[in-house]
Amino acid sequence: MDTSSTETIVRGACPHDCPDTCALLVTVRDGKAVKVAGDPDHPSTHGALCAKVSRYPERTYSPDRILTPMRRVGRKGEGRFEPATWDEALADITARLKAIAARDPQRILPYSYAGTMGWVQGEGMASRFFHRLGASQLDRTICSSPGMTGLQYTLGGAVGMDVERFADSGLILIWGSNSITSNLHFWTFAQQAKRRGAKLVAIDPYRSDTALKCHQHVALMPGTDAALALGMMNVLIAEDRLDRDYIERCTLGFEALAERAAQYPPERVAQICGITADEVIGLARDYATLRPAAIRLNYGMQRTHGGANGVRAIASLPALTGAWRDPAGGMLLSASHMVPVTPSKQVRPELMPGWPGKPPRTINMVQIGDALLEADPPVEAVIVYNSNPVAVAPESDKVIAGFAREDLFTVVLEHFQTDTADYADWLLPATTQLEHFDVHKTYGHWYVLANNPAIAPLGQARPNADVFRELAARMGFDEPALRASDEDIVRDAMDWDAPQAGGVSLEQLRREGWAKMRHADAPFAQGGFPSPSGRCEFYSQRLADQGLDPLPDWVPPWESAISNPGLAARYPLALISPPARTFLNSTFVNIPGLQAQAKEPAVEIHPDDAAARGVTHGDMVEVFNDRGRFLARASVSDRARPGVPVAWGIWWHKLTQGGRNVNAVTSQALTDLGRGPTFYDCLVELRPAP
Ligand SMILES: Nc1nc2c(c(=O)[nH]1)N[C@H]1C(S)=C(S)[C@@H](COP(=O)(O)OP(=O)(O)OC[C@H]3O[C@@H](n4cnc5c(=O)[nH]c(N)nc54)[C@H](O)[C@@H]3O)O[C@H]1N2
Ligand SMILES: Nc1nc2c(c(=O)[nH]1)N[C@H]1C(S)=C(S)[C@@H](COP(=O)(O)OP(=O)(O)OC[C@H]3O[C@@H](n4cnc5c(=O)[nH]c(N)nc54)[C@H](O)[C@@H]3O)O[C@H]1N2
Ligand SMILES: [Mo]
What we know:
- The protein has 4 domains: 7-60, Phosphorylase Kinase, domain 1, CATH 3.30.200; 70-142 and 342-516, Rossmann fold, CATH 3.40.50.740; 161-333 and 523-545, Dimethylsulfoxide Reductase, domain 2 (3-Layer(aba) Sandwich); 565-688, Barwin-like endoglucanases (Beta Barrel), CATH 2.40.40.20.
- It is of the alpha/beta class.
- The protein has 24 helices and 27 strands.
- The chain is globular and about 70 Å long.
- The strands form 7 sheets. The protein has a 6-stranded mixed sheet, with helices on one face. Strands 22-27-24-25-23-26 form a 6-stranded mixed sheet.
- Helix content is 30%, strand content 17%.
- Residues 17, 113-116, 121, 142-143, 385-388, 392, 413-416, 418, 430, 464, 577-579, 584-587, 649-650, 662-663, 666, 679 line the site of one ligand MGD.
């Protein structure tokens, strides 16, 4: 008898919604995953994982995992369930969906986001199923769509620098990003650049961990980034610090942009942004002279009314100075189109009834609160996977009231009993990344990664794709696209024969773990952007054709003293709620080791704001506006800007003292372009908790 234990290393990929998408090495001993480590050979992972994902085995084997299908027995939202079999669950769900679909399939709504970013367990089979069903389409806008739209209208797509090249930059503007929290593996390259003499500047209302480690911190007001970028242009043009040759050959609409920038002299910009004119001028001069000049823009700056215009303005800067000429110059917001993805082959919109002329209606996920309460025809069923809307969507009181509807049929595929799972009629156990196959691209580097299953599914957990494949069969959908295997979906999701893919095969990817997409060292040195003109479009004809402003501009926040003085008189504080280092949106909030580090919901307040309200460090405070209220522990610190408190995201409501997290006060208003959320465009008042 062989009593020795077996140990293997399985190649995986981190599934989370993060620009880093790390290459993983999972150690499996006797069928159990005992360790998850970063692959030392993968250049951007370089053997290091964040504190969260190193705890992936703890999360996977948590005693709180949902491991069997569960049927609701209590009142809606009470979170009381009894175990059932998969057959009972899927038979009942099929019967319910058939009955609703017979009236109008648009009364069924999928709700999903990026709990996993995988091509298979994300939207592969699930979207095919909902398209064929004729369900309402979900506009998946809760994170990046303003920025993506801004890039589309400027560069023509989500293209950007190779993250590894930031190590050679001479200036790095870290703009709207707390990289140490949300983009740790970029930060490693930024530090290499710093050691080689680069200047690092953080542009962020809050003096984040990242801002603390930069040479300079420009603490502008939230939602004023476009004004700052236009002010920098104003100076670059006035001082003739331009790359005229690059502008001539690789851009469109310079004269019009120059006129727009003329409206933003440094003094006006200083007033809008709440900084000094010297900061504007100094930033522009550094940007023109410290080369190569690189911008790491992140999504934190596009969660206000003018978010997309902000991205348009900032994305125009590297073309003005010709920063793209250098491999270590240019900018990076998202690089997801550096991978030759083929989304329509992946999710098959043509399966929708009425496609393409009259497809089913679209519901914006940001406005799920209003949709569940007011949509006409009403939403009668919602199927949630890879998301926790009750915690993460804005204006929680409405979201909760919507999910609490007794007449709403709710199915939730989950690992844990989240705030959303509490409202399920059926709670279905999903596998984690260690238990299923997938392939990932990312938005922060140029790699595609494979995730091989390391262990067998725990309990009765099933991969999302399996569940939707079986639901399709039970509904009687027999199109081949709905019977496709996981591998078929992956083959459909990318053009494997495109030159960028370098001839890599799926088999090779599974074996080696990752493959870098092939691009020229400085891909836009000669222009060649994916825009209609092939140029960087300062002036966008496509926007003009829609009757929209063809040039980037500063679009004021919905809620600010300038745009809404009446509201600002009652609620003078501009609250932002950026990601916490210990959590990934609302994922990991229930993991004891990480929860202990974060302790409890906190709000950081400038000493002047605290004193004016009789708040001292460590007090419990109530943060409120007309939409709602939540409790948080006050941390009084001058790292917060006066007038801009910071509440870290995103706690589960049920794990907070007052039963509400920060989204109790955020609004469902949308951005200028891209129909995105405005989480950081939110006026509040606060006081010591009663
Ligand atoms: N640890 C951790 N990592 C994460 C996440 C997480 O929750 N936790 N979330 C992941 C997700 S979903 C995403 S989308 C990404 C990116 O997520 P981002 O939202 O880009 O997150 P951060 O990089 O933390 O950047 C937010 C920073 O922007 C600042 N900020 C807020 N408003 C403004 C503004 O108007 N202008 C400017 N210039 N700055 C502003 C905030 O103070 C904060 O420091 O991160 C991913 N990575
Ligand atoms: N106030 C405020 N609100 C915000 C933000 C903010 O900065 N401030 N950020 C916004 C942003 S950028 C984003 S991206 C959204 C994120 O919102 P969500 O996409 O909802 O992200 P998570 O909260 O991480 O929830 C993902 C859920 O998916 C589950 N999951 C993971 N893998 C799988 C799987 O394979 N199968 C199934 N069935 N489930 C799985 C996890 O257990 C988790 O509960 O939140 C937004 N909300
Ligand atoms: Mo996000």
